[in-house]
Specification:
The complex is a heterodimer. Chain A is mainly α. Chain A has a domain at about 15-265. Chain A is about 75% helix and about 0% strand. Chain A has helices spanning about 1-30, 35-65, 70-90, 100-130, 135-155, 170-175, 180-185, 190-210, 210-220, 220-225, 230-255, 275-285, 290-310, 310-315, 320-325, 330-340, 360-380. The longest helix of chain A has 30 residues, at about 35-65. Chain A is globular, with a radius of gyration of 22 Å. Chain A starts with a helix and ends with a helix. In chain B, the strands form two sheets. Chain B has a six-stranded mixed sheet, sandwiched between helices. In chain B, a hairpin with a 2-residue loop joins strand 9 and strand 10 (about 210-215). Chain B has helices at about 40-45, 70-75, 95-100, 105-120, 120-125, 135-150, 165-180, 195-200, 220-225, 225-230; strands at about 1-10, 15-25, 30-35, 55-60, 65, 80, 155-160, 185-190, 205-210, 210-215. The longest helix of chain B is centred in the C-terminal third of the chain and has 16 residues, at about 165-180. The chains are: A mainly alpha, B alpha/beta. The interface of A and B includes residues 214 and 220 of A.
């Protein structure tokens, strides 16, 4: 019975997203077809898709398993470069010539899966030694991984000038068949949505499975978990690998949505939206242990970042405050501090938002609030 | 049932367990007593595979435990109740108990064992929907013990069940241990509270700086002058 309910939850959520997508297509169709509105909004949707995947996948490690990993963007970089290089090879071999047709779409999906797999293998190789460490030490080693992988990619001959430039030649991704222009992004928006939905479903299934219960137990108490017969280290490595897979997929989507790849976009920190620190902020903001929280936080953070970078109101601010916004990390640091003071468990905590359960949850929350109120009243009358 | 021969454990260069031998027979309650740092917890950790041992042998019904990883040992019928009441604080009592049966696939067996645990610990049944972190110390100790029983083990290792509990609760916990023993469960008990440990046990070993200095019937040890001076405060 419980499984039926879960399955219904997946179905309802997917249907709602599909309906929203169709509605979106129809509305933008009414308001001027391939008009400006759509061309502005669609790239944002692409960005949201890969940020959601990135945040949700880190949440598996950070929120559910409770291990701090600071090199998550390293896996994304691997995914992005894998996808780009495979599609470049296909293009050079003449498998596809123009960016259309069934073969082309199959290659894109192939690139996305390959990107995830290579990232997962790297996750496994890094995870086996790294997850023997705990806390600060694990943070340091994953931080190191994030930095090393960037240098490795920079120095690989086939990632350099012969293959993908290190960012000096813009538009190099177009040659590979990825790197969608505005129009292609509109045409292939469904790819991003399908990939995101499938990946999120896989993550939800993971955390609701036997494995999910085990990793939550490990987060709660490692000694008790191993006393219950859970192989702590192998579950840690498994989660790390699984999480790396989705970071790799996010990287492939990133390669589709951008005109050039530059390793600096995947660094530990940088001036942009995409870096390992930023992903950690998203997970903490959304709630460690809530995948839906990560989705919401990724969208919020994207919006905040977009406003800081492009909002006209920022330019209108006095120069002193305006200057602060030139350093977005400063803003995120403040956001993080505010979250930790006022809502230490993040927006959602460990609560999972579900359309199916929403009416029930609202009822429960009301009952709780009423009970708390009654208690206060009683305390006051006694007091 | 459980046989340990000439066991040696090192922490780096420190020789923590220096060739101890002990045995627990079926249905017995054996206590391992000793002062802080004598190596009691280390011995239990070595038995259940949480730390590697350097040499010697540990066998359970003839099967070698030293070569078995910790997560497999539990399925061989040896459960460990760790020191300090490690429960899953953010899970309910029942979820905690079900985690204890993580290695069991058959739902019927799990339900059967759950009923068995609830019959030993009626208080846990009353609180089965409560978060484990909100239980009192004594109840958490019951929960950790109940969780170890969820696999219906041949033997359970209990590490300092009296730790951090008020004298009244210590009495209660020991009454439960006695009751478990009477129902036929084999127990290896590690305790600092030598008085209580000797009162409930069939046999006992005294561990001193990594070596077994005395062993024998618990009742006789309780009368022994050296034990009385060193551990019973008489």
């Amino acid at each position: 019975m419980k499984n039926n309910k879960t399955a219904r939850g997946y179905l309802v959520n997917t249907l709602v997203i599909a309906a929203a997508f169709i509605l979106f297509q129809m509305l933008t169709g009414i308001f001027g077809g391939e008009g400006d509105f759509k061309l502005v909004l669609v790239p944002s949707l692409w960005q949201c898709c890969y940020l959601i995947l990135l945040a949700a996948s880190l949440n598996l490690v950070l929120g559910f398993l409770g291990q701090l990993s600071l090199g998550h963007c390293g896996f994304m970089a691997i995914g992005a470069y894998t996808a780009a290089l495979i599609s470049l090879a296909c293009e050079r071999a003449g498998v596809f010539t123009d960016k259309a047709g069934l073969v082309y779409i199959l290659i894109i999906f192939g690139c996305i899966i390959a990107a995830g797999l290579l990232a997962a293998v790297t996750g496994l190789l890094v995870g086996i030694p790294a997850l023997r460490l705990k806390g600060d030490y694990l943070a340091i080693i994953t931080l190191g991984f994030g930095m090393i992988i960037v240098n490795v990619i920079n120095n690989l001959p086939f990632c350099g000038q012969d293959g993908l430039s290190q960012g000096s030649a813009a538009a190099s991704l177009y040659k590979t068949g990825l790197g969608f222009g505005s129009k292609a992004k509109v045409t292939y928006l469904w790819i991003a949505l399908v990939v995101t939905i499938v990946c999120l479903t896989l993550m939800f299934m993971f955390v609701r499975s036997k494995y999910g219960r085990a990793i939550r137990a490990i987060k709660d108490d490692e000694i008790a978990a191993s006393a219950s017969g859970i192989n702590v280290s192998s579950y840690k490595v498994l989660t790390f690998t699984y999480s790396a897979f989705f970071a790799g997929v996010a990287g492939a989507l990133y390669a589709c949505a951008n005109s050039s790849l530059s390793t600096s976009s995947f660094a530990f920190t940088n001036a942009g939206i995409l870096n390992s620190t930023f992903v950690v902020v998203m997970v903490v903001l959304g709630g460690m242990g809530s995948l839906t929280g990560s989705i919401v936080a990724a969208v919020i953070m994207f919006f905040v970042n977009y406003q800081i970078a492009n909002g006209s109101w920022v330019a209108a601010l006095p120069p002193l405050i305006n200057g602060i916004f030139k350093y977005p990390m400063l803003v995120y640091a403040v956001v993080l501090v505010i979250v930790i003071i006022f809502r230490p468990r993040g927006i959602f905590g460990t609560y999972e938002f579900s359309l199916v359960r929403l009416p029930e949850d609202i009822k429960k929350a009301r009952a709780r609030r009423a009970a708390a109120k009654a208690e206060r009243k009683e305390a006051a009358s006694h007091g | 049932m459980l046989e340990i021969k000439d066991l040696n454990v090192f922490y780096g260069a420190i020789h923590a367990i220096k060739g101890i031998s002990l045995s627990v027979d079926e249905g017995e309650l054996v206590s391992l007593i000793g002062a802080n740092g004598a190596g009691k917890t280390t011995t239990l950790h070595a038995i259940s595979g949480l730390i590697p041992s350097a040499s010697g042998s540990i066998t359970l019904d003839g099967a070698d435990l030293r070569k078995t990883p910790a997560n497999k040992i539990i399925s061989m019928g040896l459960s460990h109740v760790p020191e300090g009441r490690h429960v899953f604080a953010r899970m309910t009592v029942e979820e905690n108990l079900r985690m204890g049966a993580y290695i069991i696939r058959d739902q019927k067996t799990i339900t059967k064992n759950l009923d068995m645990v609830y019959s030993h610990f009626p208080r846990l049944k009353e609180r089965r929907r409560q978060l484990a972190g909100t239980l009192s110390g004594g109840e958490q100790q019951m929960l950790a013990t109940g969780r170890a029983l969820m696999t219906d083990p041949k033997i359970i290792l209990m590490d300092e069940p009296s730790m951090g509990l008020s004298p009244l609760l210590v009495k209660e916990i020991f009454a439960i241990i006695e009751e478990l023993h009477k129902s036929g469960i084999t127990i290896l008990l590690v305790e600092q509270n030598a008085k209580m440990a000797l009162a409930v046990a069939d046999r006992a070993y005294v561990l001193e700086t990594g070596k077994i200095s005395m062993s024998g019937k618990a009742a006789q040890l309780a009368q022994d002058d050296r034990v009385r001076k060193a551990y019973l405060g008489a």
